[in-house]
Amino acid sequence: MGVRVPPPVVPTGGTVEATEDPGTSGVRREDLRDVLRSTPARLVTFGVILTILLLVSAVASATAVDQRQDTHDRLLESTEPLAYAAQNLYSALSVADAAAVTGFISGGLEPEEVRDRYLRAVSEASEYLVVAATGLTDADATTVHHLTEIGRLLPVYTGTIETARANHRVGNPVGAAYLGEASHLMQTELLPAAQELHSRGVAAVEATQRAAVRPPWLAIGLLIVTVAALGATHIVVSRISHRALNPGLLVAIGATGLALCWLLFAGLASSSATEQAIEHGAEPLATLTQGRIVAQQSRTAETLLLARRDTSGVYDTTFGENMTLLGDILDRYAGSAEPVAGRDTVEVARAAREAWLNSHRRTVDALGRGDYAAATVLAVGPGPGESTTQFAALDTALRDSIVATRTELRDNEFRASRTLLGLAPATLVLLGVALLGVWLGLRPRLKEYR
User: Fold this and answer.
1) Who contacts 134 (Cβ-Cβ below 8 Å, separation ≥6)?
2) What backbone phi and psi angles, to 5 degrees, belong to 215?
3) For the chain, how many structural domains are there in total?
4) Which domain of life is it from (predicted)?
């Protein structure tokens, strides 16, 4: 006879707590794993991963291209013009000082041509001072300081020169003292500040070009990974669906591949043009500019040699050291194996330097034997075999070479910027098409499992 089991006693007002079968949670976890391992879940996972890759690649590519193009544009519009203005500012100041000294050692009334040269140089210095200050920001504190000093001291210099001229015209010996004071101000304050401005400008050009010469490897690498992921997804989806081709994914692969090729070739072309700008523009331009500055320093030393009737040999030694350095610069440039702009005019500069050295030797010889009049004619006279003519020929040749190399630099930088034109928006459009293609390709496969 069976045993009757009484029903459970429920206390009054109480409730019965439900107890879960320990196997139920395990079944649910297994069901969840089955769902995650299912084909629809895999397809959604592929779509999410590809979406992330495409979005990251789009942002990285567009940002890299925009930054690269901004770098080229900044170089063309501000960095390089400011460096060029600083070089011209130094040249104008140097010419003004040499012309002022020449007016004093010419004897008698100051030649009108020399006076015009001085006034023109001062006017050019004022113009280039304004140009060099254009577009400066608070971050350019050192540059602003140098420009402020030049702007403050230039009127002091010109005023002192005018005082010297006024005394010189009436035969007052104190005019020479004022000339010496003005020249000292130019040599110790104005010209060093202008040279520092130029050096900072050249350094800024070099830094900007270095930032633009490297291809956008991060963006290119991301696109390569994205194309590979799209290709792998197409293979897996084709096997799942038993269809050889998936039009949506093929469109995505094609659009991403096109963006990759465009970015790769444009990036490499832009980098190549930038390298050309550095090798055939920026580097020779810096060398020639240094040569022109050295030549102007040599001319200043030569005129001061006569103005102060120096017999200690200090100015002659300075002249010789500068001319040796100038010769090394010109020889190195002319002997370059690379096809460089302005080589013909550099040859003219080398010939003018040799002729100038010969004239200077005769000037020093005349000064050494006490023939100040002959030394003055050789140094500042208008004759074809005298220092003034040879320096003018040398300076003109260097200036023409500088213009040629600057044109080479700017042309290549413009080409580097132009190769990137329209690439950023085109990349966004292509990767947007690729993203649309991914989901259009996966959607029919997902619908098959509803």
Assistant:
1) 78, 82
2) -60, 155
3) 1
4) Bacteria
